Amino acid sequence: MSTLLAIVIGTFAITLCVWVAVLFIFLKQETLSKITMFLVALSAGALMGGAFLHLMPEAAEQIKPNALFGVFLISFVVFFLIEKLFHWRHCHRADCPIHSFGYMNLIGDSIHNFIDGLIIASTFMIDFNLGVAATLAVAIHEIPQEIGDYGVLIHAGFSNKKALILNYLVAFTVVLGGLVGYFFFSHLNNVLPYLLPFAAGGFVYIAASDLMPEIRKEANLKKSIGTFLVFILGILLMYLIKLINH
Questions:
Q1: What is the pTM of this model?
Q2: Is 91 within 8 Å of 221 (Cβ atoms)?
Q3: 226 contacts 220 by C-beta, under 8 angstroms
Q4: What is the residue range of 49's domain?
Q5: Distance between CA atoms of 51 and 45, rounded to whole angstroms?
Q6: What is the separation, in whole angstroms, between the first and last Cα of the chain?
Q7: Residues 176, 118 contacting (CB under 8 angstroms)
């Protein structure tokens, strides 16, 4: 399979997460809230696992430690800046508060998806198995994110149909990011290894600042243990993929 085809298939698969999320939306409110928290926990674990079990080790084989951790730190700061500028943070609950900035949420989501596409493109261009791992980590994260985004749009005043259509159109920016990444990075082979710690920094930022705080809000001890175990499951899933690929 050619690298370009792998990127197109991987990024297009991410857009389908919108429709997977739709299936959850039709559940009862109480059931949806419980499931969403477990999905958030799984997402956080997968992103952490993808960063520290796949992206960083691969980058460590190609660039020096000072550059590796320097780029990782810069990435963390950049993702924080993006969030502050574009109100990127997503609601990960079924009962998201009413927002007057529904369109701002769409803009932030578009930027988020475009960056995801760049990450997927860069990882596939370095190694096919690495691309698969990165795509899976992004896909797992997309499902609870899309549930939250849909809730934001509905509470912002969009109709069900319009919310779904806009969410799906925005999802396609991940494909655009993948294509732009492929043609742009093709001329910057020396830069590719540095994109791995940059992507890892983004994964860790999203998991640590956006997802894990949602999990920490759970006051019930039994549910807290459950979400923690699912978080570990997300990490183990990425570890299992690493074992299979090697």
A1: 0.81
A2: no
A3: no
A4: 3-24+31-245
A5: 10
A6: 19
A7: no
